[in-house]
Each structure stands twice: as C-alpha cells, then as structure tokens.
C-alpha cells in the first residue's frame, strides 16, 4: 500500500476534476488527482462538445411533467426509463417531478442561467491557456423544429431565453435550409444561437488538458477511492493500492459521487441520466455546426473526421450495461435526418451525473470546507468546467 500526503486531493479525473486541479495548481496549491481510468474517459469523453451557455432550461419543466408517464414508459422516447430500475429510481423521480413544478422550474432556470452566464468566455480563456483553441469552432448551434405546432409550442422557451439575454435568432424553414443546405427541409423552423461555440473533439480536449495539468505539476494517481473519512488534521482516502491524506478534498467523481458524499454523512439526491452516442467516420460531416432535431433529443455534431450523434436520456442507474435498443433507436432517428448514413463506426454509453433540479452541486460539504463537492452537472458539465473550477478555488481560498 503506497502512502501519499498532499495539500489537495481531487477525486475523479473528468473534465470537472482536471479543470479544477489545474485551477488549484495555478493558485499555488499542491494537487493530486485520483482517477482509476484514463482521465477524461467517462462522460467527459462522449458528450456532444457544445459549450451550451444557451441551455438555461432544466430537464424538468411543467411540459415534461405533463407528459412524464408517457415519455418514461415508451422505451424509444428521448427520455426513457429501464423498468428494472424503477424501484431504485423512484425517490429521484419524485424529486424530479417536484422540481418540474412551475415555481421550482422558474427558480432552477434562474440558477442555471446564472451559472452559464460567462461560460463561453471562461472556456475561450481556458482553451487558450491549455493549448486547445484549435479544437474550438465558433459557427453557432442550431435547434430544429419539425412541425409548425412544435415551433409554436416552443414560444415560451424562446421568450424565457430572451428574458435571460441569450443571443438567439428564430429562423424560417428556408433560412434553416440556407444555413445547413444538406439538412432535409423542416416544416416548423429553427432556433439559431449565433454566439455558441463547440469543441470538435472532446476526447482530445481532455488529453490536452491532462497534459497541461501534468506540465503545471498536478500529480495523477491511477486508483479508485473506496473510503473517505475525516481525521483531526484533514481527510483520509483509502484506494485499492493507496492510502492518501489531504488537507482538503474535492469530490468530482461525476455520477459516482453520491456514495462518497454519503460516507461523510451527506445524502445527495444524485443519480444518472445515461446518454449514448454513435459515430460515423467521414471526411466532411453533413452539418457545419451542432444541430439538435429537438423531437429526437440528440445533437448531430460535426467532429474531426466524423459525425457524432449524441444525446437522449435513459434513466437506469450506473450498474446496468449499455442498452442496444437505445442505440438502435438513435441510429433509426439519425437516418430519418440523413437516410444515407451507413453503419456506425463505433458506439458509446456514458453517465451524466444528474440532480433532479438540473443544478450542479458546487459547495463546501456540510461537515466543513475541507471537503468540497463539485458534481451533478448533468447535461452541461463540459460547459461549466471552468466556472466550477473557479468556484471551487474561491471556496478553498476562503
Ligand atoms: C451523450 C451526452 C452528451 C453530452 N453533451 C454535452 C454537451 O454538449 N455540453 C456539455 O456541457 N455537457 C454535455 N454532456 C454532459 C457532460 O459530458 C458531463 O456533465 C460532464 O462530462 C461531467 O463531468 P465529470 O467530470 O463530472 O464526470 P466524468 O467525466 O464522468 O468524470 C468522473 C470521473 O470520476 C472517476 N471516478 C468515479 N468514481 C471514482 C472513485 N471512487 N475514485 C476516483 N475516481 C472516480 C471516473 O472514473 C470518471 O473518470 C453530455 C453528456 C452525455 C452523456
């Protein structure tokens, strides 16, 4: 058993953990990241790559609540549940339903909008600092509405974003066509976020960030923390082959953070929204920017040398294997948009760390500032990584 002592330990080497470690290191702290796998190989690898500063609306809304039963029970819907997981997920679902009520939804939207307000700027800065600017694209992002009814039904969302100052343009079907000529004609219209930026290779971003962290002096330990407990002068973590003592700890283990928080006496209603992607290798993807056909609940993402089709939500916990049916539905729906798509080159499933209110947990633990929580980022963890790092840094500096 190797013994290690450090100033700060970060549990989890996803985008949240590594961005936080980098920031703490630039504050002059000694930092160790504990991660059992290649850093950035969890949810931070397989996402859609959008810096979604426009995504102020939580997953739980009054409209979703109205259709919740039919959405969940249809195994092919963009928001489905594995029936076997229902009993374990019931408490989370009850909280989710509550957080979807009008007053909670309004409050959650306001908290998310606040967190997202400078997300693009913060990423532009961080990307320049770590040498990842060439992996950024700035062609905006496009939502598609298949029918006039769907376009009309989204009017309150358009207004809400406008009220929060999100830059957006409503597009007619013809305008959608001239922006993305290879898309089939939609009858409803489009919503264009002209200032949105996106990464063209999230996995590569993680490799570049890991290398920058190592250059800055962050140490990475390949191990998985099994127990965590407070001692008189700090926090003790036991991992398979290491005993690690730190003055302070950041829990950034994504969807796996709930058990660690519980060991410190805090019950956090964290679960996972499982997401999937398919990739099609090709030189020139058929879209110029991330495009979201809203009725399918996924993004078509132009990435380096490939098209990635990423998204949808499956509630099913972190234990169950990937569900082939979800991949079949993703493929069938992707082919509804681009019928000539061949067989996918690869597929992936990952765990969004999700709170019922879609608001991440970024705060000191109730037991003290020696443990800081930084998890639960759901659909916007890539977007919020620099902001989270800044918040954790000020918590630990106080
Ligand atoms: C299909 C899909 C599309 C998405 N698209 C977007 C998007 O376009 N924009 C956006 O902003 N977000 C998007 N997201 C969400 C985003 O990917 C996540 O919110 C984000 O990656 C979460 O980062 P994380 O570091 O918290 O978690 P992770 O990347 O999962 O990292 C957590 C790490 O903790 C490690 N770990 C777990 N347990 C332990 C332990 N006991 N000890 C040590 N280490 C441990 C794991 O191995 C893992 O590497 C998407 C997600 C999915 C699934």
TrEMBL record:
GO CC annotation, single: cytoplasm
A Pfam family: DAO
Superkingdom of the source species: Bacteria
Entry GO MF terms: oxidoreductase activity
Keywords: Oxidoreductase
Xref: Gene3D superfamilies: D-Amino Acid Oxidase, subunit A, domain 2, FAD/NAD(P)-binding domain
Enzyme Commission number, as recorded: 1.4.99.-
Enzyme superclass (EC): oxidoreductase
InterPro entries: FAD-dep_OxRdtase, FAD/NAD-bd_sf
This protein's name: D-amino-acid dehydrogenase
Source species: Rhizobium pisi
Lineage, broadest ranks: Bacteria, Pseudomonadati, Pseudomonadota, Alphaproteobacteria, Hyphomicrobiales
């Amino acid at each position: 058993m190797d013994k290690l002592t450090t100033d700060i330990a970060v549990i989890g080497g996803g985008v949240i953990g590594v961005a936080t470690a980098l920031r703490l290191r630039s504050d002059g702290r000694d930092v160790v990241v504990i991660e059992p796998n290649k850093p950035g190989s969890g949810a931070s690898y397989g996402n859609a790559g959008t810096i979604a500063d426009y995504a102020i609306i939580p997953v739980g809304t009054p409209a979703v609540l109205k259709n919740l039963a039919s959405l969940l029970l249809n195994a092919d819907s963009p928001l489905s549940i594995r029936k076997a997981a229902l009993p374990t997920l019931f408490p989370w679902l009850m909280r989710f339903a509550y957080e979807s009520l009008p007053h909670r939804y309004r409050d959650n939207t306001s908290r998310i909008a606040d967190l997202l307000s400078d997300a693009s700027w913060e990423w532009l800065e961080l990307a320049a600092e770590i040498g990842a600017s060439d992996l950024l694209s700035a062609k905006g992002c496009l939502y598609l509405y298949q029918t006039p009814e769907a376009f009309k039904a989204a009017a309150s969302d358009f207004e809400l974003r406008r009220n929060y100052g999100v830059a957006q343009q409503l597009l007619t079907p013809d305008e959608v066509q001239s922006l993305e000529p290879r898309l089939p004609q939609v009858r409803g219209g489009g919503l264009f976020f002209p200032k949105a930026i996106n990464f063209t290779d999230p996995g590569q971003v993680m490799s570049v960030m890991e290398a920058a962290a190592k250059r800055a002096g962050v140490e990475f330990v390949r191990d998985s923390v099994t127990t965590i407990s407070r001692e008189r002068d700090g926090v003790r973590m036991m991992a398979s082959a290491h005993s690690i003592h730190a003055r302070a700890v950041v829990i950034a283990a994504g969807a796996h953070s709930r058990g660690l928080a519980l060991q410190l006496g805090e019950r956090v209603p964290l679960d996972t929204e499982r997401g999937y992607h398919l990739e099609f290798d090709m030189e020139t993807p058929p879209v110029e920017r991330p495009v979201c056909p809203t009725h399918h609940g996924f993004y078509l993402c132009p990435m380096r040398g490939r098209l990635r089709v990423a998204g949808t939500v499956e509630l099913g916990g972190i234990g169950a294997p990937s569900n082939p049916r979800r991949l079949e539905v993703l493929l069938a729906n992707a082919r509804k948009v681009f019928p000539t798509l061949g067989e996918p080159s690869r597929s992936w499933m990952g765990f969004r760390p999700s709170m019922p209110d879609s608001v991440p947990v970024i705060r000191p633990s109730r037991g003290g500032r020696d443990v800081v929580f930084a998890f639960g980022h759901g659909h916007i963890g890539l977007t919020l990584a620099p902001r989270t790092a800044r918040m954790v840094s000020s918590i630990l500096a106080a």
